[in-house]
């Protein structure tokens, strides 16, 4: 599949990869991924429905949870078409424009999730450290502005990526490492100078994941300092318990992401399917586990869900 560099009128076609070396197991892999998709889509849709219907949940913390659920649905639907085509129908080709569109939406929702987790940590900081000002600080208008800010930041940072890739000549075997299009995977393929792409990609990571994770850590340091001023152990545990769901959401988002980054940098000699499995964890685990965690840890959501299941006739 090598050859001369392609000009802008001859945009390349990319080849998606399922699990290198495990082609005979890909039907079973589709069953697993299909289950994960179903749990993610149904779980996040239920969270949105319950928050909409339950008046007691019409408060800032659950508005941010709604944003997280919408974003997780976006992540799932961004990867679903090519994962379904690759693992179920063994259709591996994807056009340049389709690949750029998928890459745009995957990274848009990934960066948005980081921003949403940051504003959720701000919500927990205000609720614990400034409880008397909670209602005046987190007004409906301010919540909308915070959500829009997370979207606008992500959109502005991701928007240039397809154009920066389109200007480059492609003359290598255009085989991707995953069943979907990711920017770090795509910038390995061009023959031209990718310095700008690498620099801009690093800038995006630092200004989103790096900045957001640092601010989340700062907010929890302030929360912990405030919690330690509470006299009783029971009071401290009760206060910290309100943060457990968010802390779990942060961990299941950032830990797989760090694992993917470490594997890409230090695991060059690992089998190819290891990198693919790590990337699947990064994109599949947070959308699947977030609704499960919040359903278990949030009493109002759990109670409404139990009522819905009790009222279902089988």
Automatic annotation (TrEMBL):
The chain crosses the membrane at residues 28-51, 63-84, 104-122, 143-165, 200-223, 244-264, 276-296. Its main location: membrane. Pfam families: 7tm_4. It is found in: Cell membrane; Membrane. PANTHER family: OLFACTORY RECEPTOR, OLFACTORY RECEPTOR 56B1-RELATED. Belongs to the G-protein coupled receptor 1 family. Signal peptide: none annotated. Keywords: Cell membrane, G-protein coupled receptor, Membrane, Olfaction, Receptor, Sensory transduction, Transducer, Transmembrane, Transmembrane helix. It is a multi-pass membrane protein. GO terms for cellular component: plasma membrane. It comes from Catagonus wagneri (Chacoan peccary). This is Olfactory receptor. Residues 43-294 form the G-protein coupled receptors family 1 profile domain. Putative odorant or sperm cell receptor. GO terms for molecular function: G protein-coupled receptor activity; olfactory receptor activity. One of its GO terms (biological process) is cellular response to lipid. The keyword Isomerase does not apply. InterPro entries: GPCR_Rhodpsn (IPR000276), GPCR_Rhodpsn_7TM (IPR017452), Olfact_rcpt (IPR000725), OR51/52/56-like (IPR050402).
């Amino acid at each position: 599949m090598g050859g001369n560099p392609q000009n802008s009128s001859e945009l390349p076609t990319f080849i998606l990869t399922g699990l290198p070396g495990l082609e005979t197991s890909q039907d079973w892999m589709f069953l697993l991924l299909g289950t994960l998709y179903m749990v993610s889509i149904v779980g996040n849709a239920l969270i949105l429905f319950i928050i909409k219907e339950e008046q007691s949940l019409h408060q800032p913390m659950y508005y941010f949870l709604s944003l997280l659920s919408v974003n997780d649905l976006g992540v799932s639907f961004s990867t679903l078409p090519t994962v379904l085509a690759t693992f179920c129908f063994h259709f591996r080709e994807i056009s340049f424009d389709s690949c750029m569109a998928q890459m745009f939406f995957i990274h848009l929702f990934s960066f948005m999730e980081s921003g949403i987790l940051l504003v959720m940590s701000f919500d927990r900081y205000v609720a614990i450290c400034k409880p008397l000002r909670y209602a005046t600080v987190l007004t409906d208008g301010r919540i909308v502005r915070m959500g829009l800010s997370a979207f606008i930041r992500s959109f502005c940072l991701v928007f240039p990526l397809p154009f920066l890739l389109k200007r480059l000549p492609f003359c290598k075997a255009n085989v991707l490492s995953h069943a979907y299009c990711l920017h770090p995977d795509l910038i390995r393929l061009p023959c031209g100078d990718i310095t700008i792409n690498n620099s801009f990609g690093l800038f995006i990571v630092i200004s989103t994941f790096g900045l957001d994770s640092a601010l989340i850590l700062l907010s929890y340091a302030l929360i912990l300092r405030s919690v330690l001023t509470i006299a009783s152990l029971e009071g401290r545990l009760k206060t910290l318990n309100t943060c457990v769901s968010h802390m779990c959401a942060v961990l299941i988002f950032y830990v797989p992401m760090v694992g993917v980054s470490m594997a890409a940098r230090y695991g060059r000699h690992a089998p190819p399917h290891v990198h693919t499995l790590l990337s699947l964890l990064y994109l599949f685990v947070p959308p699947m586990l977030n609704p499960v965690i919040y359903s278990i840890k949030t009493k109002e959501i759990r109670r409404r869900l139990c009522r819905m299941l009790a009222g279902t006739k089988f």
